[in-house]
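Human:
Care to share another protein and its fold?

Assistant:
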Amino acid sequence: MLKVIDSKVYYEGKVLKLQVDEIEYDSSKNKGIREIAIHPGGAVVVPITNDGKFILVKQFRYPLQRELIEFPAGKLDDNEDPLECAKRELEEETGFTSEEISYLGKIYTAPGYCTELLHIYLAKNLKEGNHNREEGEKEMQILKMSFEEVLEFIRTEEIVDSKTISALFFLYNKNEIKF
């Protein structure tokens, strides 16, 4: 298919590495460049209260310079199990904990240029506690919404976060909700 002629990491930051590969296509011998954001991946958690409300967060997303409504999520720490990351992010961002967390699926967020793989989990039987937000998350708001409200926010483009929209499909696919 293709071979890598040269690969170089140009930047290594807290969240990602930027790598540029020079490639050659086997079929034509034409050369090309591929720019890759190397990301450790993360976990998304879909918290549902016993009365059927989803817990979402509204937070400012710097790259977009706007607030987004989304399910709690975060980056994997070095060698961290995605389930542990989901538990950590649930408590850190919302204050809720759960001993009933199940795996729903996984998504690549932008496979054309990024290696980020998100693992999606469902959390039930939530126990309310205190959040432990990181710097930059202090202004985060917690929203409790019905399934119908979440769908309406997607329809009206008030929710445009891909991991949140994908998580609903996984809930549907696992027969956890009905459209």
